[in-house]
Amino acid sequence: MLPSATTATPTSRPRLPWLALILLWLVGVYLRLPILIAPPLAGEIAGALDLGSAAVGALTTVPYVVLALSMMLAVRVTRRLGVLPALIVALAVVALGSGARGLTLSAPVLFGASIVMGLGLAVMQVTLPALRDWTPHHLALGSAVYLNGMTVGELIGAGGTRPVVLVLAGGDWQLAMLYWSLPALVIVLLLALRLAVGPRPAALATAPTRRRSRGWRSPRVWLLGLPLAATIGLYMATNAYMSLVLGARGESDRLALALLLYNASPLAASLSMILRGRRWVATRAPLMVCGVLSVAGMLGFLGLDGWPALLALILSGFCITLELTLLMALPPCLERGEGVASLTAGISFVGYSVAFVMPLIGGWLAVVFGHADLSLWPMVIFAVASLWALRRAPLTPLSPAQA
Q1: pLDDT tens-digit readout, 289-345
Q2: Could you name the CATH architecture of 3-7+16-206?
């Protein structure tokens, strides 16, 4: 545990940086929202552009793949521009890329805009943890707040696009995408104002720890990245194959409820992290408990049926989100300067790359062997194996000699 970084003594009690926390939350909302507004509009997009189901699905997967593969590029951009300027540029790119998808009826332009959007999201992913100067006495709270914003963004993007934004747009999917981009531009202006009148976080290029980059050979990147991959992959695979699993056991009528409960559990977890979980950051026991319970919950979902299976599913989703939040809160606690962005980029690359591949293996096994549960078993086995990495991961800052 890092007392000086994550907690305050009773005598000091530094005030909460409310403006910084609000901005972090608003930016966090747009970490995933632009990706998840595409699935609710899939039918309209497919009809307008004559796209197949695989191509429509790629509108969601392509930004994730670009995000994972461009992490090191994102670190270079952040190093060149500085943390806050890079975040401003990245969010503007995300807003313009997302909005550009609604300005075209050309499939190549649509996917090109999605790629550009993914590049912006990658820079956002590495800059947010590096904004430690905004919440120097509340590092864990800052991480929990922007991750809570990300969770809310996922929920309103997936759940609010059709019933609210598409209705406001008069059923026009292009206009709906443009509407979602406008608030991001407002946030860009707020960040620019913060840059103009407030203290600036140091640029990575001038940080004293510039030489301590987190290369792929660093054990810490892999020991933290593999558990992150387990949380992301287990969550993605469960959402992707839930209908297959429930249909095979004759419970298709529970699908809508199961999806609602499973995707609402991260919000409850992120709120509990803000309220009570800051003391858990950089301690091993909460990470291990969350990892074990997320697997136990998924095993319960696969082995049970009816309400017991749904309750186990909620437990798994809740613990997956807590583990993910605790992992993403580690870089600003363990590193300084360039090391924060580099470690974030490293574990995110490992996490998203592995999480993208493993569910595909599960889907292939389910088709080949004709057993729906096999779609989730590869991720469950991987999540169990990741506990070993979590047990060995160093959770204290490295000395310069160790870097």
Answers
A1: 999 999 999 999 999 989 999 999 999 999 998 999 889 888 888 887 677 888 888
A2: Up-down Bundle (1.20)
